[in-house]
């Protein structure tokens, strides 16, 4: 497989655009630390998409497939760790009710919509549903993580679901991007 050489519009810009640019320019083994931290933060605090990590130009002295595997696994671990942190916050919010009340009174009823969607997924598929929901490329998953965190209670299963969902998402995105690159080269 060849290096992914397309410049794709994954960055969302905004106040955290500097962090996305840091990921997109991360090199060497320290770049994996940057990817971990970015993935951790995107799980509970940052708006945007996690696929940005696939653009990191890491030079690890590894074959392409090994480099991409390292990026995907590091991002998955970072997202799982950040999700557990969000899960803890969600458990605290569930107990206090203050955040949920504030969000319900907000102009956009994000909680009602996300709760309905998440409850449907959680009731039907449980933690597998969370993993599948997190596999959707390009969709910011912070809201899903928090909504699911308020409904569930098992930290270990939550961490596994977010890890596999994150890895699945990046693998799906990378496969799609590789297919696009192949088609462009073919044409």
Automatic annotation (TrEMBL):
Top-level taxon of origin: Archaea
* Keywords for the protein's UniProt record, in alphabetical order: Membrane, Transmembrane, Transmembrane helix
Q: Where are the transmembrane segments?
A: 29-58, 125-149, 155-175
Pfam families (UniProt xref): VTT_dom (PF09335)
- Where's the VTT domain? 71-174
The entry's protein name is YqaA family protein
Native species: Salinirubrum litoreum
């Amino acid at each position: 497989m060849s290096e992914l050489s397309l410049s794709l519009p994954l960055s969302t810009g905004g106040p955290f655009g500097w962090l996305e640019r840091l990921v997109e320019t991360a090199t060497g083994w320290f770049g994996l630390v940057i990817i971990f931290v970015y993935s951790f933060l995107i799980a509970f605090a940052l708006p945007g998409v996690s696929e940005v990590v696939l653009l990191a130009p890491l030079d690890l002295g590894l074959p392409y497939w090994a480099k991409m595997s390292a990026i995907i696994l590091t991002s998955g671990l970072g997202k799982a760790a950040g999700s557990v942190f969000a899960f803890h916050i969600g458990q605290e919010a569930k107990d206090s009710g203050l955040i949920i009340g504030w969000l319900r009174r907000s102009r956009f009823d994000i909680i009602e919509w996300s709760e309905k969607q998440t409850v449907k997924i959680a009731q039907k598929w449980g933690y597998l549903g969370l993993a599948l929901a997190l596999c959707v490329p390009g969709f910011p998953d912070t809201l899903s993580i928090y909504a699911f965190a308020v409904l569930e209670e098992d930290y270990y299963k939550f961490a596994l679901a977010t890890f596999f969902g994150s890895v699945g998402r990046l693998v799906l995105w990378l496969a799609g991007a590789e297919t696009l690159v192949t088609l462009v080269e073919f044409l």
